[in-house]
Amino acid sequence: MLISSSSFLLQLLLHALLVSAWFVCCNASASSPTTVTSPVPPPQMPQGNSSDHMALLTFRSSIASDPLGPLSSWNGSSHFCQWHGVTCARRHDADRVIELDLHSLALSGLVHTSIANLTFLESFDLFNNSFHGHIPEEFGHNLLRLRHLDLSMNSLEGEIPPSLGNLSYLQVLDLARNQLTGSIPPQLGSITTMEKICVYKNNLRGSVPHSLGNLTALTVLDLSYNNLTGVIPPSIGKLRNLTSFNAEVNGLTGTVPSSLYNLSSLVVLALGSNQLSGSLPPNFGVSLPSLQNLSMYGNHFYGPIPSSISNASSLLSIQMLANGFSGVIPPTLGTIKNLSYLQLEDNFLEAKHDHDWRFITSLANCTRLAKLILRNNRLEGVLPQAISNLSRGLDTFLLSHNRISGNIPNGIGDLVGLAFLSLRDNLFSGAIPTTIGKLQNIVRLDFSQNQLSGKLPSSICNLPHLNLLLLEMNHLTGAIPPCFGNLQNLWGLDISDNNLSGSIPKELTSIPVLSVLNLFQNSLSGALPLEVDHLKNLNKMDVSNNHFSGVIPNSLGDCQQLANLNIGGNNFIGVIPPSFNKLRGLESLDISRNNLSGNIPNFLQDFSNLNDLNLSFNNFDGETPKGGVFQNASRISILGNPKLCGGILELHLQPCFGGESKSSYGHALLTTIITSLGAVVWIIFAILCIISLRFSKRKTFPSMVRSKEMFSRVTYSQLFRATEGFSLCNLIGTGSFGDVYKGKMDATITNCKSVAVKVINLQQHGASKSFTRECEALKGIRHRNLVKILTSCSSLDFHGNEFKALVLELMQNGSLEQWLHPAPKDDKYCQKHLSLAERVNIATDVAFAIGYLHSHNFKPIVHCDLKPSNVLLDDNMTAHVSDFGLARFLPNKDDSKNPTNSLAFKGSIGYVAPGKST
Ligand SMILES: *[C@@H]1O[C@H](CO)[C@@H](O)[C@H](O)[C@H]1NC(C)=O
Ligand SMILES: *[C@@H]1O[C@H](CO)[C@@H](O)[C@H](O)[C@H]1NC(C)=O
Ligand SMILES: *[C@@H]1O[C@H](CO)[C@@H](O)[C@H](O)[C@H]1NC(C)=O
Ligand SMILES: *[C@@H]1O[C@H](CO)[C@@H](O)[C@H](O)[C@H]1NC(C)=O
Ligand SMILES: *[C@@H]1O[C@H](CO)[C@@H](O)[C@H](O)[C@H]1NC(C)=O
Ligand SMILES: *[C@@H]1O[C@H](CO)[C@@H](O)[C@H](O)[C@H]1NC(C)=O
Ligand SMILES: *[C@@H]1O[C@H](CO)[C@@H](O)[C@H](O)[C@H]1NC(C)=O
After folding, report:
1. Boundaries of each Protein kinase domain copy (predicted)?
2. Nearest ligand for residue 96 CA
3. Ligand 6: centre distance to CA 225 (Å)
4. pLDDT tens, 715-774?
5. φ and ψ of 734, to 5 deg
6. Roughly what angle, to the nearest 10 degrees, separates helices 836-851 and 2-31?
7. What CATH number was assigned to the domain covering residues 716-889?
8. Are 49-124 and 716-889 equal in CATH topology?
9. N or C: at which end does the chain have fewer Cβ atoms within 10 angstroms?
């Protein structure tokens, strides 16, 4: 032990050295100037207007950072009309700037008022930079020739200047994705040339001005993701050329003006997530021949969905979920040939008689149907065989939470494109059709909470991508087919609460990714397979209330990812295996109602995450520990073990007397020697740490979150609410794999109120993999210098697209990058500099984290992307390493015979190690 701990110290020192070296390098690279500030000679070119020249120079001087360097061409050696992004034209015998296009150049700084002196400017584009500050009011007074103004995707604040209403030639006004506040100025309604207004993703409030109805040339009006209130002005219905009206995610109230439903030019009508109400007119859709996207989700609409909706025959996507729609689903939807998303879940839609299901027959004509989501309605009766004629491209078919009865049609097997199929919580009976073996693309199959009977069909074993198989709460009988071991991608298996019998086939232990195994409430018997230790990712196992017998296999202690273990209500005998000592991540352990005996092992009191321990109704004897979880009588249950003694007073046990049986005395002596030896080592280690580190007070290991919920974790809508609709003002960072938002969550979902939500950009190649890697890497590890995952979300968003996010602890002090290379607007970081002591502390923290990852985790992990932006600082300036998107597990020594894939290029340029990593 001494030897291993001193080698650990050595490693720590090495890591600290490496990290500090890395620091010095970082600092060196930071000190190389990023902004060029060479003196500028006075203007020499006579034909250029000197006022324009001055204005450009003043604008440039207000730009604080130009990392890509395009503005270095803005100097005296060339005429300003040749400068990057500048376009001139001859006006009144002088070259005047008519266009300034600086989009996507990573510029930051203020939008200087001097731009207003470019009086001939027609087009100004700063899209996708980091400009901050206000939009100068002078634009509206001087830039009277402006046609195109695009300031979107910056960090602009303040209000939209009403003076912009003077720009009487303006055609495009794009201010989206900023942090603008205040209301939309009614003055914009006087710009009759206006064709496009985009102000989505700001913090605008107030109502939508009536005057916008004067903009007869308007084609696009996008007001989504703001905080607009009041009604939709009926005048909008006068905009005969409007193709896109998007008001999603605001606080709009009232009914939708019927004129809006008559705008035949509309291609996009998006009203989702407001507080709109009313019913749809009987001729809805008749005057919307071009409509492609209809979004009405999350409002208070009610009444039937008119059949006339099928006259809107260009529709691609119908999202009417989460309203109060009732009546039957129109049987004419099939005329919408290209319909690909039909989302009607969370309404009161009915099907009582067979002919109410005709919509399924009709939908067979929609050959591009990809998502059909009808969950949580009032559908009853028998699911028609005609489902087999639905599009082969259907990938999501969710009918859960209805009252559908009868057999599951055999034809379900013909929907070979299905990835997600859920019939959960219905009244389906009969056997599971063997034809589901044809669903070669299925990822999640959920038939739980029905009245299915018969055996588990072995055709399930042919589903190579199956990730989640949920069949709980049915009346299934027979044994678990051994061929379930073929399901090599199975992450979760829940067949609890059925009438299954037989033993657990040992083949089940050959599924490397199996993480959740729920078999409780069946009639399963036999012993637990000894090979259970092959399930290296097992996180939750519940086999309670069965007839299992024999001893608890010692090998179970090698499932070191286990957080929840329940083997209660069986016939297990023997002792709690000593190997359980290794299950340090346990959060709950239930071994109640068995015939277990022996002592309660003392190591249980050292499990810092254990907060739920049930040992009741066994034959345990000896002294009850008093530390750890045993300190709190409400977290443990030891009832029905008459031979136990000691423990804390609240347990009301007999006091223990000295005379213990000899065998347990010897055992105790050994344990005492080992623990005291361990204690000595730890004391030495602690002293060394204290001396070599600092005297500052740091947080101790915070306890892991208890996730009672198994599969659902946290839902999209919870995250949507927590981040205020993924509002831009909550955006705190953008990484290669997606955006990070700060958010406030209900403390019952996570222990923290403030969290960081990392939304994985699934469009990005490899992002899904990165999510899995990060989950995998962070799942089993706990260290105070690593950012903790609180929970995760893997579901569908309001548009039915796949959505994955991680919920992490929010680090109040941002990233180390922000401290080392502060962006000018981050005032907080400009004020302060890191002291030497803080730098050393951060370096040691990072070293601890990396040391832990490399040497003290059960499987060494290489981070692969360690850089200042991935080191986050909490309130106490304690560093936490984050972003495990590229992390890799190193092969164990015994795996080394089959070397893993050669390392492709991974990491950030400037931080990857040169040459091949080991
Ligand atoms: C790091 O760089 C900054 C600015 O580039 C400088 O002010 C600071 O003194 C440097 N610190 C160290 C430890 O070199
Ligand atoms: C430059 O433009 C300004 C403003 O339009 C004007 O007052 C000035 O006379 C112009 N100068 C030249 C040299 O054209
Ligand atoms: C803009 O024009 C005004 C009035 O012509 C002048 O006073 C001011 O200095 C100019 N600003 C710049 C930056 O050129
Ligand atoms: C613009 O709209 C407002 C309100 O709808 C109306 O009172 C006003 O007369 C309109 N102005 C013009 C120029 O059409
Ligand atoms: C509406 O669009 C049509 C066709 O693009 C165009 O001819 C007409 O001028 C537009 N109306 C207005 C008021 O701009
Ligand atoms: C939106 O407005 C309402 C009412 O004015 C206010 O309570 C709420 O906090 C606002 N939300 C945001 C995100 O600004
Ligand atoms: C669907 O197509 C069939 C023929 O392929 C046709 O008879 C039926 O009327 C169509 N239904 C709808 C609703 O378009």
Report:
1. 726-918
2. 2
3. 12
4. 777 787 788 777 766 777 776 667 888 888 766 555 557 888 888 777 766 667 767 766
5. -135, 120
6. 130
7. 1.10.510.10
8. no
9. C
Q: Is 365 in the pocket of ligand 7 (CB under 6 A)?
A: yes
570 closest CA partner among 586, 546, 554: 546
- Select from 579, 630, 633 the least CA-distant residue to 608: 630
Beta-bridged to residue 405, according to DSSP, are: 382, 427
| Number of C-beta neighbours around residue 406 at 10 A | 14
Q: How far is the CA of 20 from the centre of ligand 1 (A)?
A: 13
**Hey, what's the torsion of the CAs at 348, 354, 360, 362, to 10 degrees?**
-110
Condensed to tens digits (0 to 9), the pLDDT of residues 893-913 reads: 444 444 333 333 455 666 665
Q: In three state form, how does the secondary structure of 428-445 look?
A: EEEECCHHHHHCCCCCEE
Closest ligand to 239 CA?
Answer: 5
Q: Which amino acid is at 423?
A: L
Pick the CATH number of 49-124 from 3.40.50.2300, 3.80.10.10, 3.40.50.2000, 3.90.1530.10: 3.80.10.10
Q: How many CB atoms lie within 10 A of CB 915?
A: 6
SS3 913: coil
Mutate to test the pocket of ligand 1, among 26, 27, 832, 842 (most ligand atoms within 8 A of CB): 27
Most confident of 507-511, 703-707, 734-738, 867-871: 507-511
**C-alpha span between 578 and 360 (Å, rounded):** 58
Read off the pLDDT of residues 569-589 as tens digits, 9 standing for 90 and up.
Answer: 999 999 999 999 999 889 999
Q: Whose CA is nearest to atom 1 of ligand 6?
A: 227
Is the beta carbon of 362 within 6 A of some atom in ligand 7?
yes
Catalytic residue among 125, 414, 533, 865: 865
Domain ranges of the chain: 49-124, 716-889
Q: Measured from the CB, is residue 114 less than 6 Å from ligand 3?
A: yes
Rounded distance, CA 533 to CA 541, Å? 12
CA 53 – ligand 3 centroid, Å:
11
Tokens of 100: 């300034």
Instruction: Find the angle CA(880)-CA(884)-CA(887) to the nearest 5 degrees.
Output: 130
Annotated binding site for ATP: 758
Among 241, 242, 244, 266, say which to mutate for ligand 5: greatest number of ligand atoms within 8 Å of CB.
241
The finding on whether 50 has its CB within 6 A of some atom of ligand 2 is yes
The answer to whether the CB of 917 is under 6 A from ligand 5 is no
Tokens coding 729: 């003002």
- Asked if 865 is an active-site residue, the reply is yes
722 CA distance to ligand 6 middle (Å): 14
Is residue 619's pLDDT more than 90?
yes
Q: Is the CB of 661 under 6 A from ligand 5?
A: no
Decide: residue 203, CB within 10 A, 0-12 exposed, 13-18 middle, 19+ buried: middle
User: How far apart are the C-alpha atoms of 197 and 680, rounded to whole Å?
Assistant: 71
**Residue 310 C-alpha to ligand 6 middle, in angstroms?**
37
CB-based burial label for 284 (10 Å; 0-12, 13-18, 19+)? buried
Identify whether the C-beta of residue 696 lies closer than 8 Å to the C-beta of residue 774.
Answer: no
Q: Is 187 in the pocket of ligand 4 (CB under 6 A)?
A: no
The closest-lying atom of ligand 1 relative to the alpha carbon of residue 23 is: 13
